[in-house]
Amino acid sequence: MPRIDPFHAILANNLLQNVVNFTVWFALVFWAYLETQSVFVTGMIGGIHLLFTGGFAIWFGSLVDHHRKKPIMLGSSAASLALYAAALGVYWVTPEEAMAQTASWPLWGFIVLVMLAVIAGNIRMIALSTLVTLLIPPERRDKANGLVGMVGGLGFLVTSAISGFLVAWDGIRGPLVLAIGFSALAIVHLPLVRFEDPVPDTATESGRKEIDLKGTIRVVAAVPGLFALILFATFNNLLGGVFMALMDGYGLSLMSVEDWGLLWAITSCAFIASGIVIARVGLGRKPLRTLLLVNLITWTAASLFTVQASILLLAVGCAVWMFFGPFAEAAEQTTLQRVVPYERQGRVFGFAQSVEQAASPLTAFLIGPLTQFIAIPLMTDGAGAALIGGWFGTGPARGMALVFCITGLLGVVLTLAAFASRSYRLLSEAYEAAPEETPRA
Fold first, then answer.
1. Exposure check for the chain: N or C terminus, fewer CB within 10 A?
2. Residues 6+ apart with CB under 8 A from 382
3. CA-to-CA distance for 245 and 153, rounded, in angstroms?
């Protein structure tokens, strides 16, 4: 039997934990919406996810830089397992009627525990990005990043196929029980993967291992245009927060939870296809140009996929979003892996993740109430319904649809502005000039 390459074994282990975390996350949103019938709740869940992602990212990045990668990934899974168990305990002791009330403290405590368990998995994702640098030669890193994106797509595919059925079968309890079991399996498997995992040399002069935010900012500032890349991704995620807050509510307004889960599963195949394409052909000589081109395509699709209440349009829009998303992610990762020193990559990846997500919680927290109390009434019996309702449609779902259309148009404008910017040209030149180096294992 041929020996499995360590990088591919790590990818398989990450796939298992990704499936666990994605399944619980999707199931939580489905279950919460069905229990409360409120897009306010789903918007708040999206906001909590993004707030935790941004809030913990710098710390997570420092943990990755200061520790060997295998132990820190094991710690990530152990934290998720413990938090899933705590959430299951809260669910068991809370009366069922309390979980259906949007003002219920047990409901929100339960949601926070589940989201903390999901967010703990982000440590693994930051570590995996640095392992691409450690284990993969420079000329193949864009393709390896495509494989990382494909693993994410497989996670979405499996998750989407089963989350709706799990919620329909056993509410949120079943997904939590499965998450505990499969997190334990990931913990058992990872120590069996053998690879060079050097002790990081990242201690400060005093011997203390610190986040060193100032030093990380200096590294980012030293690369011309890198701050602009992070800022572009920040505004991109600001608009993407709208999709996290409203997509499930919109999809569930058109179909059953089982059908919505199946639609996600089918469109997630585009995510996998994208990873395969990147793994085979790479991103081209100019990954930054690739990043902006795919953003232009995705935001154009985002402005159009809800112009009519159509499951087909929704499916096409989701497929476009899924297919081109990994190109943008891989392009950013490949750029950072080339222009940032390896010993700083965990903190820079964490810093970028933190800054990029900083605006999204505001969007996700605000968009639920704004849609619920402004956009939906506007398109139900308000001025919007009277003005464009004849061809656009009326009702709560069309209020959500209007928000999607406006968001897509803003994304197109943002991407065109980035293409014309001086920072884009400077960072492209810095990428071309950066040496191709492989860190010493």
1. N
2. none
3. 20
Instruction: Read off the pTM.
Output: 0.67
Give the single-character DSSP code of 240.
Answer: H
* Residues of the chain under the 50 pLDDT cut: 1-2, 203-207, 441
260-312 pLDDT per residue, tens: 878 877 887 787 788 788 878 888 778 888 888 888 898 899 899 999 989 99
d(CA 128, CA 136): 11
DSSP, res 94: S
256 Cβ partners below 8 Å, 6+ apart?
164
Candidates 224, 288, 328; CA nearest to 418 is 288
Going by C-alpha positions, the residue among 250, 334, 292 that lies closest to residue 419 is 292
3-state SS class at 197: coil
Whether residue 68 contacts residue 200, with contact meaning beta carbons closer than 8 Å, is answered with yes
Structure tokens at 157: 């595919």
The closest alpha carbon to 331, from 208, 232, 211, belongs to 232
CB of 350 within 8 A of CB of 62? yes
